[in-house]
Backbone:
């Protein structure tokens, strides 16, 4: 029984020794494998997402974000969200630019209307001044006409008086 126990102890020591020898080697091998197959690609995808985010934060909305069919994981979804956000921001910027153009056009039209209104007002002021000058001329002419009519009335009276006297004298002479 002792020999069997000794064999069992020796076998257990051998297995422990082999486990201590091959365990770390197996861990390093699997660690290296998982690092290459999982961590590095994931790190590369994260770097790609970070690069896209940095370009967007720098204001570069003109870039094309490629989202492949194999990008159905979280980083792919994040890239797709960035792509949609960039598209929406570009559309918003386009609308703002269009609104700016419309505001500029409207401002130009308002300025032109203002200048046209100013020209019309200047013409109306000139026409009003002409009407005032004409009214003054008419008033002056009316005053002259009144004076001439008064002169004609006086002369008519004098003529009528003279004619009446002449008629009286002719009647006396007869």
Residues:
């Amino acid at each position: 029984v002792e020999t069997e126990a000794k064999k069992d102890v020796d076998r257990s020591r051998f297995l422990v020794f082999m486990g201590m020898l091959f365990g770390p080697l197996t861990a390093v091998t699997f660690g290296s494998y998982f690092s290459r197959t999982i961590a590095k690609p994931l790190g590369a995808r994260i770097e790609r997402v970070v690069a896209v985010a940095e370009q967007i934060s720098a204001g570069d909305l003109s870039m094309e974000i490629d989202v492949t069919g194999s990008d159905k994981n979280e980083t792919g979804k994040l890239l797709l969200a960035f792509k949609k956000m960039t598209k929406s921001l570009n559309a918003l910027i386009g609308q703002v630019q269009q609104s700016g153009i419309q505001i500029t056009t409207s401002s130009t039209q308002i300025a032109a209307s203002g200048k046209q209104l100013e020209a019309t007002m200047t013409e109306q002021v000139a026409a009003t001044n002409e009407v005032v000058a004409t009214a003054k001329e008419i008033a002056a002419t009316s005053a002259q006409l009144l004076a001439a009519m008064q002169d004609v009335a006086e002369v008519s009276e004098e003529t009528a008086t003279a004619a009446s006297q002449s008629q009286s004298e002719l009647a006396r002479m007869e």
Summary: The chain has two helices and no strands.
